[in-house]
Amino acid sequence: MNIMIAGCGKVGKSIAMRLCEEGHQVTVIDKDEVALHSVTGSLDVIGYRGDCTSIEILKEAGIKNTDLMITVTGDDEKNMLTCLIARKIGGCQTIARVRSPQYAEDIKYIKEDLGLSMSINPERVAADEILRLIQIPSALEVETFAKGRVNLISFAVPSGSVLDGLQLKNLHSKIGMNALICIAVRGNRVIIPDGEFVMKADDKLWVTLSLADINKFFNKVGIKTKNIKNVLIAGGGTVTYYLAEKLSRLKMDIKIIEKNPEKAEQLAEQLPKAMIICGDATDKTLLTEEALEEMDAICALMNEDEENILLSLYSHKNANAKVMTKIHRDSYMELVSELPVGQVISTKKVTSDYILRYIRAMQNSIGSEVETLYRLIEGKVEALEFIIGEGFSGAGKSLKDITLISETLICSIYRGGKIIRPGGNDTIETGDSVVIVTTHEGIKSLDEIIRR
Questions:
Q1: Do 437 and 192 form a contact (C-beta atoms < 8 A)?
Q2: Is 220 exposed, middle or buried (0-12, 13-18, 19+ CB in 10 A)?
Q3: What tens digit of pLDDT does each residue of 219-251 get?
Q4: Which residues of 313-345 are buried (b: 16+ CB within 10 A; e: fewer)?
Q5: What is the pLDDT of residues 399-434, one digit of tens each?
Q6: In this structure, is the dihedral angle defined by the CA atoms of residues 166, 170, 172 and 173, taken in order, positive or negative?
Q7: Facing residues of 96 across strands?
Q8: How far apart are CA 166 and CA 174, in angstroms?
């Protein structure tokens, strides 16, 4: 695909790098020569210096031959205006980064008028990711399908678990739940398991479950869970605002520590249900006074990576809590992977992942039913959601009468508000949302997974 990116900051560079790795033709625009050179000097991209809202610059950069315009400058209004112009003169699809809370609700009303294919608010998406991890504290990773109704969750099999030594075909009779193990990772080996597969301690497994069944499932397989009620958030930025707003709706007790008095006062007005503390979240005395050790979850969301890392390390040592750490710098990612700082959150990575997920679905869904596409385990497995249209050759047939291609599994069917764990007597019908996992790339239709 021919993709144009307006904005050569950290996010723009990250997106450009990953798009180049996937073989796309990338053009970047920025009026800042230094920022532009940081991308063109390190990546195989075409660069144009200038204002991305200029029709002449867009034409010169080749907007009429562009399939997708992505705008990630630091100005929301400029991002939206650029997408509007690109849509009008180039007819391409457009994605705009829109960060301001004031546009969070308004954007859906003007999205069509602006010609936006998608808008993304990085801080809001990051807050959603943190919220999922808080709601499912024992999970290592969480991906969602069917508009959040179906969850694909990863976890590690603990020593002594009922799963250790259990054949997969006996899972349902052993735990009596509507759960399906879809993927297993053992060492460096990735397996799409069949009924004969024997699970072992330390395996990393992916399971499909409804949100209501997750804690019950974890308890049955020997993973201790507890509902999170008390959350401490360090830092009063935009991610904190979105997260606290969502946590308040869930009636959780929230403490926010922010050292800037003006920002703390503003948060107190915006979030009346949260306790706002003006102070330094790396101050040991303050953390003791605010009962850090009693918190169920601790989110280090300050502007400085070093402060976030220090708080998370201290929390790991002094509190029995779910810890999440926001990191900005790529150079720190490898470092923190070796440290006990809990789940790492990067708004830059969240943004690029979100946009790339859309591009993959866009690229793979031409002439297909693909609704959502995730690449898991360093791209070794794809999880795809299909909305079944007319003409699916397997419609109405029992799954036991359908033979799938190798290393492929149907792991969930969503129909009429009900999640179905696929069994031999189940069928796939028009209108269903169906999730599959496979090691094959480029599947565009559910028909392609049926062995002829």
A1: yes
A2: middle
A3: 899 988 778 999 999 999 999 999 999 999 999
A4: bbbbeebebbbbbbbeeeebeeebeeeebbbbb
A5: 999 999 999 999 999 998 888 889 889 999 988 989
A6: negative
A7: 71, 119
A8: 9
